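Recall from the previous lesson that a structure prediction takes nothing but the amino acid sequence as input. Here we apply that procedure to DUF4760 domain-containing protein from Protaetiibacter mangrovi. The sequence below is the only information supplied.
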Amino acid sequence: MQWWNDFVDWFYSEDGQRILVTAVIPFVAIVLAGILGALIGRGAVKRLVAQRDHETRAAAVSALISAGQNAARWHSQSPAAREHAEHLANDADVMVRLLPISGANYAADWASHQLADMRVNSVSFSYQADQTLAEYRERLVLWLHKPNKGRKMFAADLERWRYEDQATDPVIMEQQKWAEEQYTAETEQSVAHEPLVEPEVETATTEVVTPAATAETDDRYSAPVAPAVSTAEPMTGR
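The prediction returns the following tokens.
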């Protein structure tokens, strides 16, 4: 305990107090200030990065929502407007896929499916496309604020759609045809058919043409049977 007594005596001596005031206290103050400044700077940088990340995600989600609004009015737009809207939708899809956030690819795939549905349903000009647009907007906003929950919902929808029948409803096809005729009558411009409609038209044409082609083939190759019988008569005479 002698060393402790010596330290206490030195600490309260004039030399000890001078070293404490001129060296120890400033050193401790500098270290604490450095630690406190590092913590404050780290917190500020994290807030800045989080704010920047949120702004980037919000811009991507806004682009997807804008593409959804264009898709809900797809059949009322001109071909030039459709081409521009499709270009913006592709840009929004790429922007979302490049986000460093959980479920970005799921969100892009889900949005692409919903945009295709809204383009088909927009032929009725009304409720179904608007309802899909409202759900589309709410789900993307939810994913923006809660990425993990939104990713699970996107994955569940994509898995369900994978096993659903993707055949086109005949009623929707008739409505789409009527809407395109109305648009052509008003603007005197033809409207290209959606990819979902063309395969069914080609299949129907093939089913009508194939029986006729088969009948012609049978009639064409049934005639040469007679010469085969006539060539056998000279052989019988010998």
